[in-house]
Amino acid sequence: MDRDYFNQNKRSTLVWFRKMPVDRRLTVKINQMDSFLKSGRFLLALPMLIFPILHFIYPSFVASIIPPWIPWHFFWTYFTALTILAAGIAIVIGKYEYVAALLLGTEIFLFVALIHVFLLFHKAGDAWAERPMFGEYPSRVINAFKDFGLFGAVFIFAGTKSQSWRNTRKDNSLVFGRTIVGISITAFGLLQFVYPGHGPGIPPMLNTVVFVFPGREFWAYTTGAALVIAGIFLVIGKETRNLTAYLGVLLLVFDLLVWVPQFFVNPADLYGNWLKDLGIIGGVLILAESLPKKPRTVLDVD
Q1: E strands, 49-139, in order
Q2: Is residue 6 part of a domain?
Q3: How many structural domains comprise the chain?
């Protein structure tokens, strides 16, 4: 009788343990991840705060990027600097962020439509489009998808700040931005297989950026496969909070592994094209933070 009583209580205790909330250590890890995800808005804002400064420091260079059939090059150089800077400040301080993000996303889309499309698809002999400053074709494709992904990241942020999101936790801008980012992430993954020499993660524009760790192509193919899978999940709307958060971590880790050694070689790269990577990563983290948490319980007891 005592033995049966003991076995019954043992089973009851195990059932209780299986249903109990996650323990303190796991709770701390979850809180740390939540804090990390909150950095997304600042990563998204960082390129918006730095690139405008470069517009004022190097106005002639920025003006030369504008297609010749668009008038008033210097006007647009300074105008875009002010609008991008204002949007970056709005994102950081949390004032007028929804409207600012929608306008910023539209502006970045215009960069893609009016500049990158013509750099990728132009007539032979086009003096503007064929200038060496825009790089070889692989560099142009990579840079186009960086701006395309940045455009999507900004719309993800806008979606999380809309009245619709506050009321229903649903927003078309967020879904639209998630799809755009998913397409870009998938493209980055595929580009790893086409141009593995550019480095793992979000590929640098140039293959001269050295990945100092052994197994460059192995890491390019491995991260490429991971990005293709994650990107497809984003496009079809099957992402989860954990999957999206880990995607952001993956992108950030490999971005730092690729670029930090490069900064010692050429410090000027600190305010270069890699800032777009951080903006895209910020959008991924913002998306992860917006997704619902699943209730966690301890499943096994020793």
Answers
A1: none
A2: no
A3: 1
Burial (Cβ within 10 Å: 0-12, 13-18, ≥19) of residue 132: exposed
Both structure tokens of 269: 């790269």
Cα angle 133-255-192, degrees, rounded to a multiple of 5: 70
Q: Which residue pairs, CB below 8 angstroms and at least 24 apart, start in 33-38?
A: 33/245, 34/289, 36/245, 36/249, 36/285, 37/245, 37/248, 37/285, 37/286, 37/288, 37/289, 38/289
What would the pLDDT profile of 144-171 be if each residue is shown by its tens digit? 999 999 999 999 999 999 998 888 888 9
User: Is residue 299 situated within a structural domain?
Assistant: no
**Which residues span the domain enclosing 240?**
36-290
With respect to residue 26, please indicate whether it lies within any of the assigned structural domains.
no
Residue 300 lies in a domain: no
**147, HSE (Cβ side, Cα atoms, 13 Å):** 20
pTM: 0.87
In the chain, the largest separation of any two C-alpha atoms, in whole Å, equals 95
The amino acid at 261 = P
User: Tell me, what's the pLDDT at 6?
Assistant: 42
C-alpha 184/C-alpha 177 separation (Å) is 11
Residues 235, 187 contacting (CB under 8 angstroms): no
Instruction: Name, in order, each residue with C-beta under 8 angstroms of 41's C-beta and a sequence gap of 6 or more.
Output: 91, 92, 157, 282, 286
Q: Which residue has the tokens 């991260």?
A: 223
The Cβ of residue 68 has, within 10 Å, a number of other Cβ atoms equal to 11
Which one, of 14, 22, 13, 16, lies nearest residue 295 by Cα? 22
Rounded Cα distance between 177 and 124, Å, is 34
Tell me the C-alpha distance between 196 and 189, whole Å: 10
